[in-house]
């Protein structure tokens, strides 16, 4: 991300210089990409401000002062304030032009990616606008007075043109338009079109981010193009409730392609998220074309401002290009995974993708430690590599990348992105999580939820380990027995969301007969006493409960963020997608998870034994572990990040400014 330099030219005098200095301090506090240069025009009369400006320069390394040389003109010219603030300042134009030309030239030739972005002039320095025009820079006026005075100044030339300036005391009162009241009518509303992949891990964060955007800025409305999942899903009730409660979020169902290939083609997730989604491009193009046309012909000044696509929907970038709409990527995963995806096409071009377990570890810019091939996404070894390279190669074509993470958690990766001109601007906006657990409740009747929460209410604080493996996580009967034995051996209280592979498809289902899959007598010995077994569970509500002390998890990114938010440490049991990489980084790079397995993959013949599970459960429940301390501290940082003044709050603001600014 480039650093930008703003050049301010204030008038000499405390009433102008002091507000300018306070405003520039606010700017650099708000955004670490901004630096300020103030061109100091010396006052022709004696002033005591120099010590004040020197103290500012000494304490703020991103604010510098450049003295503008005095023009060679007789001092006698400037005996009245009017001449000080007009002829005197205009006489500095040649010197100002020379200074700014040097600044622009230096930034163009510099390797540190700082560019002069704009000239900000004072009321009495508007003659400097000509310098900005000549050097093709944007110019802004910083008015140290008020909006009423601005209305007066804007009205004055109009009266002058009409020869209607009457200033005698006996003349009629002036009627000055209240320009401030007119301003909102000129501010266009913008519509953002989101295209998420089907599936809870993608749709839920998209909905939460959309809600955050409309809460933040009342000029924004959201349209979500809903691609129906190829497999049965229970998300529709949640989307309907969002649509009913948020009038500025609407859903448009994307029609299923009539000539789609037979279902046999879609037996792997990769094919669902590539070929299947690509088959919707014509329908998506038609919908967005209609939206653009409607907004162009509408009287309510709503403009389609951007297309925001999911990782698996990057083929829709072509639609945005064709319709001349900016496109952004919303990555529901983390900055480390973004680093991996950005690096993948580079390795492919060099023919350096080596994914055998015996191959050397990968050195990925943005990830601190070398990454063993065994924890890379399974897509690299199961025939989906070409599809992933195709997806990853589109990332750099976007105007920006929004990531569900926060600076404090992934400082290394985010700093690297900000210093790499080849990477579009990255907006870390997380944690974006469903704190109301709306999606979980849509899959759960009230009686089930009440049973779970009541059982937790009866348990001591931080005494329960929660086992849950995401919307796609399940185990066969042999592994289920080992989990049960491991839990019993651990002696820990447990809440286990047990789901089994579905015979009809890839979406797991609740177990219909627990006694068939659990060890003999296990339910009698544990259920309701030391533990509770359920099907689909309200995960966020469980992690938020005071009785929950540990989490045996598949390490899906949403689950990791939810656990960090609530200060609950994880023991790692990754299954698919990028979860192995997530687990590796949580353990080795961040030190915020306990290692059980880092390289387990769904579908493997590997069965994790009861003793290994027991050890992980006991470890993650340790009351005063370093992992628990780190997780609890990061939870506090996560909450601070999304509040006003926090890093993610600021990043959302920058994204909104970019979307609205380019409209």
From TrEMBL:
Q: Which Gene3D superfamilies match?
A: Glycogen Phosphorylase B (3.40.50.2000)
Recorded superkingdom = Eukaryota
User: By its UniProt entry, which InterPro entries does this protein fall under?
Assistant: UDP-glycosyltransf_plant (IPR050481), UDP_glucos_trans (IPR002213), UDP_glycos_trans_CS (IPR035595)
Key words of the record: Glycosyltransferase, Transferase
Identify a single GO molecular function assigned to this protein: UDP-glucosyltransferase activity
**Family according to the record:** Belongs to the UDP-glycosyltransferase family.
Q: Please give the name of this protein.
A: UDP-glucose:chalcone 2'-O-glucosyltransferase
């Amino acid at each position: 991300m480039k650093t930008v330099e703003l050049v301010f030219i204030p008038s000499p005098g405390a009433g102008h210089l002091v507000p300018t200095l306070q405003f520039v301090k606010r700017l650099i506090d708000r955004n670490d990409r901004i630096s300020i240069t103030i061109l100091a025009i010396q006052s022709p009369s004696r002033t005591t401000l120099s010590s004040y400006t020197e103290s500012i320069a000494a304490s703020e390394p991103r604010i510098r002062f450049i003295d503008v040389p005095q023009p060679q003109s007789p001092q006698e010219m400037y005996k009245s304030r009017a001449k000080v603030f007009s002829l005197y300042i205009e006489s500095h134009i040649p010197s100002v032009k020379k200074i700014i030309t040097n600044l622009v030239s230096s930034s163009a030739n510099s390797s540190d990616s700082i560019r002069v972005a704009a000239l900000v002039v004072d009321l009495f320095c508007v003659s400097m606008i000509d310098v900005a025009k000549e050097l093709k820079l944007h110019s802004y006026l910083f008015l140290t007075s008020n909006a009423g005075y601005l209305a007066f100044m804007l009205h004055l030339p109009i009266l002058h043109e009409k020869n209607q300036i009457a200033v005698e005391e006996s003349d009629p009162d002036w009627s000055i338009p209240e320009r401030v009241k007119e301003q909102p009518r000129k501010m266009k509303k913008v519509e953002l079109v989101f295209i998420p992949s089907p599936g809870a891990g993608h749709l839920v964060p998209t909905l939460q981010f959309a809600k955050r955007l409309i809460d933040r800025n009342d000029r924004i409305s959201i349209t979500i193009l809903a691609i129906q999942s190829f497999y049965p899903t229970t998300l529709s009730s949640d989307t309907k409730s969002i649509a009913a409660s948020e009038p500025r979020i609407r859903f448009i169902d994307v029609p299923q392609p009539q000539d789609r290939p037979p279902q046999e083609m879609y037996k792997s997730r990769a094919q669902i998220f590539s070929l299947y989604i690509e088959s919707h491009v014509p329908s998506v193009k038609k919908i967005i074309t209609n939206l653009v046309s409607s907004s162009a012909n509408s009287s309510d000044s709503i403009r389609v401002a951007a297309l925001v696509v999911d990782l698996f929907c990057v083929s829709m970038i072509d639609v945005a290009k064709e319709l001349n709409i900016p496109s952004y990527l919303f990555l529901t995963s983390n900055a480390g995974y973004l680093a991996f995806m950005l690096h993948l096409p580079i390795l492919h071009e060099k023919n350096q993708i080596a994914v055998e377990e015996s191959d050397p570890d990968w050195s990925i810019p943005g990830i601190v430690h070398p990454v063993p091939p065994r924890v890379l996404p399974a897509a690299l070894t199961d025939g989906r590599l070409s599809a992933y390279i195709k997806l990853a190669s589109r990332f750099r074509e976007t105007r920006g990348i929004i990531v569900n993470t926060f600076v404090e958690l992934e400082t290394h990766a985010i700093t690297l992105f900000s210093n790499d001109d080849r990477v579009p601007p990255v907006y870390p906006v997380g944690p974006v999580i469903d704190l109301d657990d709306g999606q979980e409740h849509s899959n759960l009747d009230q009686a089930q939820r009440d049973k779970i929460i009541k059982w937790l209410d009866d348990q001591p604080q931080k005494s329960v380990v929660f086992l849950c493996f995401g919307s796609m996580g399940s185990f066969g009967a042999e592994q289920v027995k080992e989990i049960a034995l491991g839990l019993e051996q651990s002696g820990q209280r447990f809440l286990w969301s047990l789901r089994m592979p579905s015979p009809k498809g890839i979406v797991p289902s609740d177990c219909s007969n627990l006694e068939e899959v659990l060890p003999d007598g296990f339910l009698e010995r544990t259920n309701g006493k030391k533990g509770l077994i359920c099907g689909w569970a309200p995960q966020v509500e469980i992690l938020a409960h005071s009785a929950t002390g540990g989490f045996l998890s598949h390490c899906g990114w949403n689950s990791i963020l939810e656990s960090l938010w609530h200060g609950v440490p994880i023991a790692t049991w990754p299954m698919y997608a990028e979860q192995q990489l997530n687990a590796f980084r949580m353990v080795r790079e961040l030190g915020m998870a306990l290692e059980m397995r880092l390289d387990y993959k769904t579908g493997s013949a590997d069965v994790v034994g009861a003793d290994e599970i027991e050890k992980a459960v006991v470890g993650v429940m340790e009351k005063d572990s370093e992992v628990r301390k780190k997780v609890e501290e990061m939870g506090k940082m996560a909450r601070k990040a999304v509040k006003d003044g926090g890093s993610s709050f600021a990043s959302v603001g920058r994204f909104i400014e970019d979307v609205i600014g380019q409209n």
